[in-house]
Amino acid sequence: MKVLQTANLGKGQSNKVSDIRYEIFDTLGDSQGAASNTGIYQMGGATSGTGIYGVELNLSTQFSGSILWSVNGSTNVYATEEIKIDQKMARYIHTGRWKINESTKQMIFYEDDNTTEIAKFDLLDKSGNGSVTEIFERRRNS
Known about the structure:
Layout: E1 2-8, E2 20-26, E3 41-42, E4 52-58, E5 65-71, E6 78-83, H1 85-95, E7 98-101, E8 106-110, E9 117-124, E10 137-140
């Protein structure tokens, strides 16, 4: 799932796109990879002077954790934020397209672009068999 993360590092850190790094951590504080500069941009453009940086991450819908921002060469400039995939998933489930596939007996949910699939649920009748007419339960398939 694509997730936009931003950090306001302040005017003193503006126009330093090549020096900005981010690192992703799970809820136990374990790094999910080395600090990276890939995909970072400054809001308003590389020389806009805002000091507000962003990056688009592509994470699993099951990911839970945070992003730590830093400035290369500076040991005292950091920012952190929780990555809120669950809120984004809830928004997509309410605003995006959903479709029932009669042959697989599944409900498929899409992002609000109406094409990117985010979840599938098996639809079951009261006996636990696949159904599209007497649905008593849904179970996450993917």
